[in-house]
Write a structure and sequence with these properties.
Blueprint lengths: L9 H6 L3 E6 L3 E6 L4 E5 L14 E6 L8 E6 L3 E6 L4 E5 L22 E6 L1 H4 L5 E8 L8 E7 L4 E6 L15 E8 L5
Antiparallel strand pairs: 1-2, 2-3, 3-4, 5-6, 6-7, 7-8, 9-10, 10-11, 11-12
Length: about 190
């Protein structure tokens, strides 16, 4: 059903949650509530809702895998979701194309680095920057030929890190030897202080 006017989402009242941060992807939405819990709903393709499957949810549903995490920010791409905790940890889930989720599973001996992630996973590669991440953002440039998502993480000291698709220079870092993506975050040479 199409809505022509804003309407209160009753599910938040039923869950006793007060939304504080909202993000929308192409086909899904995510909310951080005042208590730090995360809810997602919409089309669950590639696991972008974080409920361990690819099923759709017509109303907001708490992401159970993050129940012990106090979230402060959420960001979405077309088929991805990123959650930032109050400690600066970043969790991601959804479409793993272009290495834009930040999980270098191939390097860790766990198979394909482009694998979809159905439940939230800690982005271990961002722990290596040894600074608290305060903002995360993903940009998805899709067309009929290929997926082209890339992600930016901003630290407390104003340093910017990028990973994901970079074949068009969109990361702001140089790729070597015909690479088309950065699996691990690389610092962008720009001062944002």
């Amino acid at each position: 059903m199409d809505e022509k006017h804003p309407r209160l989402i009753e599910q938040f009242r039923l869950l006793n949650l007060q939304p504080m941060v909202v993000a929308t992807g192409a086909w899904h939405a995510a909310v951080v509530a005042r208590d730090g819990s995360v809810c997602t709903w919409g089309w669950g393709r590639y696991g972008c809702l974080g409920h361990g499957n690819e099923e759709c949810e017509s109303v907001p549903k708490v992401v159970e895998a993050l129940i012990k995490v106090k979230a402060v920010h959420v960001a979405t791409g077309d088929y991805t979701t990123f959650v930032l905790s109050e400690d600066g940890d970043v969790y991601s889930f959804g479409c793993g194309e272009s290495a834009s989720l930040g999980h270098n599973t191939a390097a860790e001996g766990q198979g394909n680095r482009h694998a979809n992630v159905l439940s939230p996973e800690l982005v271990k590669s961002l722990k290596q920057v040894k600074e608290k991440v305060v903002q995360i953002s993903q940009i998805s440039l899709t067309n009929s030929i290929h997926w082209n998502a890339h992600t930016f993480a901003l630290t407390e000291s104003g340093k910017l890190y990028a990973f994901g698709a970079g074949d068009k220079g969109q990361l702001g870092v140089e790729l070597m030897n015909n690479q088309t993506e950065r699996v691990n975050p690389e610092r962008v040479d720009i001062d944002l202080e």
